[in-house]
Design brief:
- The complex is a heterodimer of chains A (234) and B (258).
- In chain A, 38% of the residues lie in helices and 25% in strands.
- Chain A is α/β, with parallel strands linked by helices.
- The longest helix of chain A is centred in the middle third of the chain and has 14 residues.
- The two termini of chain A are 34 Å apart.
- With 258 residues, chain B is mostly helical.
- The N and C termini of chain B lie far apart (57 Å).
- The chains are: A alpha/beta (234), B mainly alpha (258).
- At the A-B interface, helix 3, helix 4 and helix 5 of A face helix 8 and helix 9 of B.
């Protein structure tokens, strides 16, 4: 059996202020799968996602492509996992869109021409061709989200993780984003509590409640189980 | 929300915009040094500088009114320093006043010095503001980095510029929220303290996430840029010529002053 893209084995985490965010979480995501992490506010979704790239202290109870998340492996793991932040403003920090998208490729050691080419390609993939010269803080919410995704795509990650990507988007931008996520290559893990959005872009759902896995199964099955969702604060 | 920002005229195309940012930055800094170090009272030199700075403004196609307004808006700060000069410079008295406990005199060399200081300040502002207006901020920062400004300072300055608007937005939202929930006088003041605190915390958390966003995209302390920098003969000739004319102005001023 091939190594799962993401394997979480009994992960617990307590914040410094004593709030228990994760309590023995176990699940795994196969390579190429498009999965969702759903749960009420404060269920531990973001904490879990942050663990995947070692933003919180590296924890070897998580493995990415079989590689435990440890300090030594962080560089390799961060190359494999692309993280799209909840607020695209956190992700767009350069003065123009193209500079932002090319930031990662340049850091990977590509030369200017190559980085520019990669960045333009990534912008095309998210439907923002011709936006390269635009100033990122003048983009609309939907455009900003796409640009943020492009910055991650340009790094060609094997796994893409997104934290609440549909928040703040209008219905049409949401539909377009769901279609975009569907079309992305590689493994996808999307955290959200926007159930319609999740139905549109993932096949598998892991339901969190108070830091524990409450359900794990095919998206349609879980999203149709009103009782289950209700019982878990959704 | 849209803001008038300092890059408003950076997208124009003009001979000044086309100059290599490093050449522009060096020429401006050298120009300001020459202006500031010119002795007091060399008014012919100041005239030459003013012509040169004016020519740079015109060549940049940045509206002259804009450059002048911006220059004058920082002028009071310089004035605060130079306003006492006419009274404290020794020399022949032009006008003596004696109002009870306050007495003093305006002297001729004092007045000349005051005029010199004001002109030098204005000329330096004109040149600097033209430079900043006619160069995209990111490019200017990168040029400064390539000329030896420590990379950390370049990053801090670039982020300050990048996120200033966000902080202004957040502030205006919080001010609006405060005003909508009423309260006047003292409570308003107390709320303002809270806003400053909230802004600090928000900025701090924002910076934290931003740093992670950079780390996750392979940042290792060095910024690599997309922009090619090419110093052409034209760049060198134009900035060199500009400085040459400035030096000529200095020499002429000294010659006629003596």
């Amino acid at each position: 059996m091939p190594e799962p893209a993401i394997a979480v084995n009994g992960l617990s985490y307590t914040y410094a202020d004593g709030a228990r965010a994760l309590d023995g979480v176990t699940f795994s995501i196969a390579s190429g799968e498009s999965a969702a992490l759903i749960g009420h506010n404060g269920s531990g979704k973001s904490t879990l996602l942050m663990h995947l790239t070692g933003i919180l202290e590296p924890d070897p109870r998580i493995a990415v492509n079989g590689l435990p998340v440890t300090k030594q492996n962080l560089r390799t793991i961060r190359r494999m996992v692309g993280f799209v932040f909840q607020n695209p403003r956190d992700q767009l920090f350069m003065s123009t869109v193209i500079e932002d998208v090319a930031f990662g490729p340049l850091n990977l050691g590509m030369d200017r021409r190559e980085a520019l080419h990669t960045a333009e390609h990534a912008l095309m993939d998210v439907g923002l061709d011709g936006f390269g010269g635009r100033v990122s803080y003048h983009l609309s919410g939907g455009e900003m989200r796409r640009a943020a995704i492009a910055t991650v795509l340009a790094m060609a990650p094997e796994i893409i993780v997104m934290d609440e990507p549909s928040s703040g988007l209008d219905p049409r931008a949401k539909r377009e984003l769901a279609a975009l996520i569907r079309a992305l290559p590689g493994t996808r893990l999307i955290s959200s509590h926007d159930l319609e959005f999740i139905r549109a872009c993932t096949d598998r759902v892991v339901l969190l409640n108070r830091g524990r896995v409450a359900a794990d199964g095919p998206a349609g099955e879980i999203l149709d189980d009103r009782e289950l969702l209700e019982a878990n604060g959704l | 929300m849209h803001h008038t920002h300092i890059d408003r005229y950076a997208g124009l195309s003009s001979p000044v915009h086309a100059l290599d940012a490093r050449a522009k930055l060096l020429a401006t800094v050298a120009f300001v040094f020459l202006v500031v170090l010119t002795p007091d009272g060399w008014f012919l030199s100041y005239g030459a500088y003013l012509l040169l700075a004016g020519a740079a403004v015109l060549a940049s196609r940045v509206p002259a009114g804009y450059v002048l307004r911006r220059s004058l808006s920082i002028f009071p700060f310089a004035l605060a320093v130079s306003v006492f000069v006419p009274f404290i410079t020794p020399g022949p008295e032009l006008w003596r006043f004696d109002w009870g406990p306050v007495s003093g005199a305006v002297t001729a060399p004092g007045l000349a010095r005051f005029a010199s200081l004001s002109l030098k300040t204005l000329i330096s502002f004109l040149a600097t503001i033209t430079l900043v207006a006619a160069t995209p901020f990111g490019e200017l920062m990168e040029a400064a980095g390539r000329l030896g400004l420590p990379s950390r300072m370049v990053v801090v300055l670039s982020f300050m510029y990048r996120y200033l608007f966000l902080i202004v937005d957040e502030t205006s939202h919080m001010l609006l929220a405060r005003n909508l929930r009423g309260g006047g006088g003292k409570s308003l003041l107390r709320a303002s303290g809270g806003i400053v605190g909230a802004l600090l915390v928000r900025s701090f958390e924002h910076a934290d996430r931003l740093y992670f966003a950079m780390l996750l995209r392979g940042y290792d302390g060095r910024t690599v840029s997309l922009r090619p920098f090419h110093l052409t003969v034209r760049d060198a000739a134009l900035s060199g010529g500009f400085l040459g004319l400035t030096a000529l102005g200095l020499i002429l001023g000294g010659f006629f002053h003596a």
